[in-house]
Amino acid sequence: MACSATKGRQAAPAIDLYQGVMYSTFRANVPPARPAFVILSARHGFIESGRVIEPYEQRMTEARADEMIAELPGFDSIEWPTGIRSILLAGGKTYQRVMRAAIKRRIELGLLNSDVIIEQTSGGIGYQRAQLGAYLRNLEDLTVNHGQEPTKYYNVRLTDKGLKASMPENAMTKATEQRDPRSLNALKEASPATAQIQMRVTPDRKNRYVRQAQAEGLKLTDWIQKHMDRVCKEAGQPDTTMYRENGDNNEQE
């Protein structure tokens, strides 16, 4: 996970020092059995979440990323957990470039399995927060449901015409037989990657969703993502209409 520009004012464990919105999302969604967690700091390189560091100001520029990649043994000297099957790269493209270089190096050194599944956040910060939250909730589902189907994940957008929720396509997704049930793209095999759900929602229903999201301390799109099954079940009621799109064919449901 990438570090954040927003930090506390005093030295603290990295997980507490960083105060950006991605870290708020992490704290709100991380399951009790916390997953292995490594931070990429623009100043320090890869660090353990519990390492105590001072506040600092340094950006992850392309030049800084190049420097880290050229000197990876020095910037990636911590011990990573063993037995990793799935990795989520959470951060901007420049951070992810360094992360991928570190993963490639560790695979070459035999420190990671070559078939490890790599997911990544993408899009705007709102989408990235939703993707991180979904990934963490999927980990909890995997534990509670003993490997059954994890939480469904959609990219959620609100427009003047209503709600649009699309299943994401990930170029890094591996073949079905190689995939881990914790993947963000758990439904990709079941439905086309282009499948979308569109709902025409009245202002009254939208206002109710807003109130419920506020009560849970969530952004509206994050609340819809969390309660997508309930939202979908309400489709077709008098003030809601839902369509599922597959390519150019629209079928009302």
Biggest sheet, in brief?
A: 5 strands, antiparallel
First-last Cα distance = 39 Å
The side-by-side strand order for the widest beta sheet comes to 7-8-9-10-11
Q: What's the number of helices? A: 9
Order of helices and strands, N to C? EHHEEEHHEHEHEEEHHHEE
Q: How much beta, percentage-wise?
A: 15-25%
Shape: elongated
Number of strands: 11
Structural class: alpha+beta
Mean pLDDT: 76
From the alpha carbons, calculate the radius of gyration and give it in angstroms. Answer: 20 Å
| Tally of individual domains | 2
Which tags fit this structure?
single chain, 253 residues, Rossmann fold, five-stranded antiparallel β-sheet, two-stranded antiparallel sheet, 11 strands, 35% helix, disordered C terminus
Question: If you had to describe this structure to a student in words, what would you say it looks like?
Answer:
With 253 residues, this protein is α+β, with helices and mostly antiparallel strands. The protein has 2 domains: 1-147, Rossmann fold (3-Layer(aba) Sandwich); 152-253, no CATH class. Helix content is 35%, strand content 19%. It has 9 helices and 11 strands. The strands form 4 sheets. The protein has a 5-stranded antiparallel sheet. The protein has a two-stranded antiparallel sheet with strand order 1-4. Helix 2 runs parallel beside helix 6, helix 6 (125-144) packs parallel to helix 8 and helix 7 packs across helix 8. The longest helix has 20 residues, at 125-144. Residues 142-151, 170-194 and 243-253 have low confidence and may be disordered. This is DUF6884 domain-containing protein.
